[in-house]
Write a structure and sequence with these properties.
The complex is a heterodimer of chains A (619) and B (145). Chain A is of the alpha+beta class. Chain A is 49% helix and 21% strand. Chain A is built from 17 helices and 17 strands. In chain A, the strands form four sheets. A five-stranded antiparallel beta sheet of chain A has the order 2-1-5-4-3. A five-stranded antiparallel beta sheet of chain A has the order 7-6-10-9-8, with helices on both faces. Chain A has a five-stranded mixed beta sheet with strand order 12-14-15-17-16. In chain A, a hairpin with a 5-residue loop joins β1 (135-138) and β2 (144-147). In chain A, α3 runs antiparallel to α4. The model of chain A is unreliable at 64-72 (pLDDT under 50). With 145 residues, chain B is of the alpha/beta class. Chain B is built from five helices and five strands, in the order βαβαβαβαβα. Classes of the chains: A alpha+beta (619), B alpha/beta (145). Chain A binds chain B through residues 390, 394, 397-398, 400-402, 404-406, 408-409, 412, 430, 433-434, 437, and chain B through 15, 17-18, 21, 24, 68, 97-98, 100, 118, 120-123, 125.
């Protein structure tokens, strides 16, 4: 088998053919030597008779002289020679066959090697073809010698168009020198990695790439070309830009927002703070806070609380929202902040620490405190006013009583002994005192609109009217007045004060009557409220109440004056009263957020209007 | 209704003029009575306890009390009288100029028997004094001493 494979297929065939030829020759000659004998035996027989040549002949020929006369010794010698030749041919052929086989073997080895190398080449070829990065090779004149499909796709030139072109066709007009320099360096054997540059597509459109140049060396180490691999940085650049933009936004926020923003680890040490916080801490840079904690900047009072809060946030996982904190500083100062803190979580939701925002509300707190103080002051002031009013009225009443009473006592005691004038004088004195008392009481009522005002609640105006009419029963009867009304609404207000208003207005309507019996009518209408301040959250509608009478009327020039305290249009003889009624009405209506005004035609009648805002919470 | 003895009235009033008016108003009464006057709460107590200059004082059947008094004010006196076993059964008529709701409430809360406002006009005043008289001294039954 080994021999067979060594010889090779063809060799084998040849040797077999040769062998076959030899054997065939032999076989064809076989009848010619029917009496062939072994040489030695022939030799022993002939020895005494043979000469040397005959002996030689006998040696080389197996066929020896035989008794059979038909065969000539030459014939016999010929067959031996033939045999010898056949053997020789066979040997030569075998030799040739063997030689051929060896040649085949080396051929075969070469073929195998060649195939292997071919496959390797194809493999490398496919790597380059399928690469997403443009791979280009250049010769020493910087001409393009290879151009992979990726290069076609990125730069737009087909392989046919690209080959033979100079690499410089790709260079942008802006920095051709740079790139040329790099090519030169590569040519000298220097590698260049990831050089960021802009190259041009066939369309002229620029593309940002990272260029890597490597010298191609021969086996002897000589530079025979340059390979250029470019990586398209567009998407990377876009991602970088997006990231950059994000960072820009965050940095802008962190650097500029006046609120304190901070990130802390699980031990409440700062990981990151914004500029405002760093500034507040007296640091030049936010980095200076990293690793430190509240304890390094605030006094323990605040730091301890913040630390405890953060431990709780981490423990519970819940945020702390809008907590008002008092920050205490080592220099003794105090600031107030509104703080929101939350857990800082990693990608798997694990808690890494806390982060938060603190907004300075010192000013707001100060304002709140000031407001509270003002409110307190107001309450105190009201109380004082109330007290003052009470005391004033009480203490003023006393002397008035004295004046009035004693003048009257005087009159009584010396009745008959005093003349008409004296009586008249006494009359005025008493009247003065009485009036004074009335005025004092009126002033007291007026001041009490504010100080004795009750909280607002739902009030049925129909009931209010009923009570007012009840209070005015005698007055109404005496004047033979008729008071009517349409259905009145329920409003949010102070019932007692509203009774005062209605009572005053109805009383006036009855009092300031003409010759005919007074007719008074009350009505109410819901109207849209005039918008004074669009920003303010005011009710949209208001109830407009009207009290219409058929009395003596009011001249237009007095429409405003009548609402002023103690202003009257008539003498006390004509119509009694102190002139406080409408002033009190105005104060009460304004306390309710409404307005009051009058329309009138002298000698025909008057209509007083007042508004009460409609609050949505009404029934 | 006639009583077998004179009725004692104690007027506690700091304003002499005011007190005089009351006295004058009482003068027209038909009842036999004696009106004593204490200027303030301290004197009132001295009177009740028959101390000092009031050693001859008799126990009042009615007390007319003004609220705003110096030294010991009317409300305080009222509290003390009504807390005292000896004197709390004596009817106390609060007689004052104050119409303030809180004063009225306070007086009744301290067990004043009634509250009367002094009117400005003399006639009205006289009428009221008369009605006090009529009611407390003539109509109601007073507790025995």
């Amino acid at each position: 088998m080994k021999v067979a494979s060594a010889i090779g297929g063809r060799g084998l065939l040849i040797s077999v053919a040769a062998l076959s030829a030899g054997l065939l020759t032999l076989a064809s000659l076989a009848p010619l030597i029917p009496h062939a004998e072994w040489p030695m035996e022939a030799f022993s027989r002939e020895r005494p008779l043979m000469t040397w040549p005959t002996v030689n002949m006998a040696l080389i020929s197996p066929a020896v002289h035989v008794p059979a006369p038909p065969i000539s010794p030459i014939f016999a010698q010929l067959s031996t020679v033939q045999l010898a030749i056949a053997a020789g041919i066979f040997a030569v052929t075998a030799g040739i066959a063997l030689a051929l086989g060896r040649a085949n073997e080396s051929n075969r080895r070469l073929t195998i090697e060649l195939t292997r190398r071919n496959e390797q080449l194809k493999h490398f070829q496919s790597i380059i073809s399928s690469s997403n990065d443009p791979i280009v090779s250049l010769n020493l004149s910087y001409q393009i010698t290879s151009w992979n499909p990726a290069a076609e796709r990125l730069y737009g030139y087909t392989e046919a168009e690209a080959l033979r072109q100079s690499m410089s066709v790709l260079f942008s007009r802006e920095e051709p020198d740079q790139s040329a320099k790099h090519l030169q360096r590569a040519r000298t054997g220097e590698s260049l990695s990831n050089f960021e540059t802009t190259l041009l597509r066939k369309s002229g459109q620029p593309v940002e790439v990272a260029l890597t140049l490597s010298p191609i060396r021969s086996e002897s180490g000589e530079v025979i070309g340059i390979s250029a691999i470019t990586r398209d940085l567009s998407s990377q650049k876009r991602a970088e830009q997006a990231l950059s933009r994000e960072r820009f936004l965050i940095e802008t926020l962190m650097d500029n927002i006046p609120d304190h923003i901070y990130f802390k680890d699980l031990e409440s040490r700062f990981i990151r703070v914004n500029r405002a916080m760093a500034g507040r801490f007296g640091l030049a840079e936010p980095a200076g806070a990293v690793g430190k904690s509240d304890f390094d900047f605030f006094t323990a009072e605040h730091a301890k609380q913040a630390f405890a809060d953060e431990k709780e946030i981490v423990r519970s996982g819940n945020p702390m929202v809008d907590r008002e904190e008092k920050e205490t500083w080592p220099d003794g100062s105090v600031t107030w902040v509104s703080t929101t803190k939350q857990c800082l979580r990693g990608k798997q939701g694990e808690i890494l620490g806390t982060f938060g925002l603190s907004r300075d509300i010192t000013a707001r707190k100060a304002a709140e405190e000031a407001l509270e103080e003002k409110a307190g002051e107001l309450t105190r002031s009201n109380r004082e006013l109330e007290q003052f009013a009470y005391v004033a009225s009480h203490d003023l009443q006393e002397p008035l009583r004295m004046i009035a009473s004693y003048t009257q006592l005087l009159a009584r005691r010396y009745e008959g002994k005093l003349d008409k004038d004296a009586s008249e004088f006494i009359g005025y004195a008493v009247e003065g005192a009485t009036r004074m008392q009335g005025l004092i009481n009126d002033l007291l009522s007026y001041s009490r609109v504010g100080t004795r005002g009750k909280p607002f609640e739902a009030t049925d105006l129909n009931e209010v009217l009923a009570r007012a009419l009840d209070n005015l029963k005698i007055t109404i009867e005496d004047a033979k007045a008729t008071v009517t009304s349409s259905k009145l609404p329920t409003v949010i207000g102070d019932g007692g004060q509203l009774i005062q208003v209605v009572q005053n207005l109805v009383s006036n309507a009855v009092k300031f009557r003409g010759a005919t019996p007074p007719k008074v009518h009350l009505s109410a209408e819901l109207k849209p409220a005039p918008v004074v301040d669009p920003a303010a959250d005011l009710p949209r509608c208001e109830w407009v109440f009207a009290i219409k009478d058929n009395g003596i009327g009011i001249e237009p020039q007095y429409f405003e004056r009548i609402f002023v305290i103690f202003q009257r249009l008539h003498t006390r003889e004509q119509y009694p009263g102190t002139g406080i009624g409408l002033a009190i009405c105005k104060k009460i209506v304004e306390r309710h957020g409404g307005r009051i005004w009058v329309e009138s035609i002298p000698e025909q009648g008057t209509t007083f209007y007042f508004t009460i805002p409609r609050i949505e919470a009404e029934v | 209704m006639k009583h077998d003895r004179e009725l004692e009235i104690l007027l506690v009033e700091d304003n002499i003029a005011d007190a005089r008016l009351t006295i004058e108003a009482f003068k027209s009464s038909t009842l036999q009575h004696s009106l004593s006057h204490a200027l303030d709460g301290v004197e009132a107590w001295e009177y009740l306890r028959r101390e000092g200059k009031f050693s001859q004082a008799r126990r009042p059947d009615l007390i007319l009390l003004d609220l705003n008094l110096p030294r010991k004010d009317g409300r305080e006196l009222l509290t003390e009288i009504k807390a005292d076993q000896q004197f709390r059964r004596i009817p106390v008529v609060v007689l004052t100029t104050s119409q303030a709701q809180e004063d009225i409430l306070r007086a009744y809360s301290l067990y004043a028997n009634c509250y009367v406002c002094k009117p400005i006009e003399l006639d009205d005043f006289t009428r009221i004094i008369k009605s006090i008289e009529d009611f407390w001294l003539a109509t109601v039954k007073l507790p025995p001493e």
